[in-house]
């Protein structure tokens, strides 16, 4: 501007007071120009030191106009420039207001459209529910007439005379649905040998449905003990021995006792204080469990024994404690797995433990120098005998040796990708006597964006045999498919709400398959897929909004049923077992949710068990559940309660009810004494 140009002759002729005033106006104009730089988007993009603060406010235009009036007596050109800048500020502010109004109008239209859509969906659901209620009322009325029960007052019916009205209506609906199923041949025309072979290939749910709709098949199933043995052993159920000389009784003991405890959320709860920081992950195999923590250690501990086909006699209390400890990581352990043994048998003892950190360090630990089976420990006479040289001190955990250490990073970017990993099931051990040999394929990924997914062949550690290119999302969970349709498929739960899947049989990068999505959710970062697990041709994943999704590998983009919001907060861990028909999830709401498969059952309810802290890891089998929480304790829930079990919560509830009833009437002893005195009089 001409007002502060270096013209010495003008300054010499100017009055000192006018000169001071001109300098003050120059400084004010410079300050205004500097403030305006923060409201000029193009300038902020070219100069990163300036952070854009949006359109300039109107008071800056008023200050520019006032400055123009004061400067006009010194320099008219500078005054005109200030007025032009004030007009630009007002124009920018007006344009910003128009754009904000337009955005509000668009948001209002979108919200109105969404409201109408929800109203239409709710109206259709209401119509469907009304039709369903009418159909149930009709079926119930037909069932009442068939059973000879009066529809006007069904409460007067004696329950001991036959099945209830609800049971008859439910059975009638099942019979009608069975009649609509397409059949290629007449089941009753099959010989007994063929029919028995067909029944042996069915699962527990299919067998129950077939036995309900066909009396001949039900009689065949009752007399075929080999069928019940297959259901009990191949599905990984407990107990793994005959009860009263029959596998059928063993199956029904597990169904009536253990499965009922799962449905009711009734467990014997064991607590192991194994770490000095929070527990980030847990895993189990056979009768061993492991947990990784932020204290950089991996703990190996014993679970309630289940593996062998005979009951354990005297090692139970010595076994259910910390047995070994893996020390060597320099960062918090974020993921752990147990591997080795017979890959097809989940009860076989493991031989290796794997652990990984967020910095890309993966370690393999050998369990060959420590007891992995309580039955073998029971046969060892020196177990727990401190007077015998070389005996195992059950109070002191053994130091587990590390046999392999790898730093898994992306070659191009150096990003680590060992924060989450999974190993293939059913892999044979080999090399070095099992102390660091091959145990199959490892799929690893990290939470950093662009790290991608890498698959390693542990028979020859080195470069990844399959490298999925990086994508614009972090990975929060990874799992191998363990079914007939997805045995070579890697699932990755990503931060953008998508579960990505790849077939690793394709060389190099792997073949990208159809993906599953979390779906619609509200709130910030609620669409994130936080965890994933797969088994039996199904895969389940949890979201940050608290929903648990279950999909079929053959139709991955469609859920088996509408996702349920099993948790009120973020889901951190999920585990699925297709043979047992169970999905277990844990979240930040300090609870464990248990869902039964298939999810399409009418009476499928979510069982919820409370925990003291938020849950970060879960692992389970037919009768045991291992939980890692945001504290130093690893919790084991045992659905096989055993003899003499006392439900503490039920006892406390009964005492509260008893105190409520006797409140204001003195103690029970005084009431009994008063009653005796009154009888004596």
TrEMBL record:
Membrane-crossing residue ranges in chain numbering: none
A matching Pfam family: F-box-like
InterPro entries xref list: F-box-like_dom_sf, F-box_dom, WD40/YVTN_repeat-like_dom_sf, WD40_repeat_dom_sf, WD40_rpt
Start and end residues of each stretch annotated as Disordered: 114-164
Every F-box domain range: 184-231
Gene3D superfamilies documented for this protein: 1.20.1280.50, YVTN repeat-like/Quinoprotein amine dehydrogenase
Regions of compositional bias (Basic and acidic residues) in chain numbering: 114-145
PANTHER family given in the database record: RIBOSOME BIOGENESIS PROTEIN WDR12 (PTHR19855:SF11), WD40 REPEAT PROTEIN 12, 37 (PTHR19855)
Protein name, UniProt field: F-box domain-containing protein
